[in-house]
Each structure stands twice: as C-alpha cells, then as structure tokens.
Design a protein that fits this description.
Layout (H helix, E strand, L loop, with lengths): L9 H27 L9 E7 L10 H4 L3 E6 L5 E2 L4 E3 L5 E3 L4 E2 L4 E5 L9 E3 L11 E7 L5 E8 L5 E3 L1
Length: 164
C-alpha cells in the first residue's frame, strides 16, 4: 500500500472542489430563499379565518345586506401585525387594500363589502355590489410586496360561509 503523505491525487482534488462548490451552492440557495421572502410573509400569524360569501336574504343594493358579506382575518400570534398596504382579493381581481391598520394578537378583523367607518374590528371595501361569488371563489391574503400569506376557496354549500 502506498501513501502520498498529504499530497492529493488529481481525482482527490477534483472531489474536494466539487464538494466545496456543492456546499457553496447550497449556502447561496439558502441565503437566496431567506432574502426572497420578506419578513412576516408566509410565516405571518395573520390568517384567513372565515368567509361569509352568501349571507341569508336577497341580494340587494342595500348597504346593510352588502355588509353581511365579509371576510374574517385572525392574528393567531403573540405580537401586533401591521397590515397597512396588505390586500384581500378574489379571482376576479376585486382588491381591498388596508389603509393604516394593525391587528393585535388574538384579535379578528372583518373586511366587509359595503360602506362604513373603519374600526379595529371592521373595515369596509365601500362597494355597491357583492364581491364573493356564491357558486365558487377564492380569497387571497397578500402582503404589501404581493406575497401570498394565505388562501381560502369554496364551492357553494347551503351554509353560505366557509371556515378557512
């Protein structure tokens, strides 16, 4: 058996280079993944909780009826989350963008379809007709950068709502 006493053969050097390149590439990929996703995006504690897409009663232009259609978000985390600039949207590109708004830990906010005055528990899209389709639709919750945090979809059920 011969020994090289610290001198690497050509094949051993190539394997070392391949190993170093592979480890380096994995490091770059991990760093890229960490940088590509903004803080609070997919790891956000804010989630879609419920969608009331077909409230009881007739579909009318009455604001009181429009506001019975809504999406509920919940902050399941331990810290307040700033939702300013976040969006709630459907498959037909109806988009609600949060103004200055923060959701405290353990709290809910209803995104109502009609008109009203925003509070810590209710915000309003100020629309004159319904957003969420009764037969089937999908809600997207996105950050200010457009990263999807959560989705909730349904096909019509007798209940008229979907718990996400």
């Amino acid at each position: 058996m011969s020994r090289n006493f610290g001198v690497k053969t050509h094949g051993e050097m190539d394997m070392g280079i391949v190993r170093n390149v592979a480890v380096g590439a994995l490091g770059v990929a991990a760093l890229t993944a960490a940088v590509a996703e903004p803080a609070g995006a997919a790891t956000s504690p804010v989630r879609l909780y419920k969608v009331v897409y077909d409230p009881s009663g007739s579909d009318t232009h009455a604001n009181s009826q429009l506001n019975r259609e809504y999406v509920v978000l919940k902050n399941g985390g331990k810290k307040t989350v700033k939702l300013t600039g976040w969006t709630v949207r459907d498959t037909k590109h109806h988009v609600y963008t949060f103004g200055t708004f923060s959701l405290k830990p353990g709290k809910y906010v209803n995104v109502r379809t009609g008109h009203g005055t925003d509070t810590s528990a209710n915000v309003y899209q100020n629309r004159g007709w319904y957003v969420w389709n009764n037969t089937a639709d999908k809600v997207y919750l996105r950050t200010t950068t457009g990263t999807t945090v959560d989705t909730c979809s349904w096909k019509h059920t007798k209940s008229g709502y979907k718990t996400c």
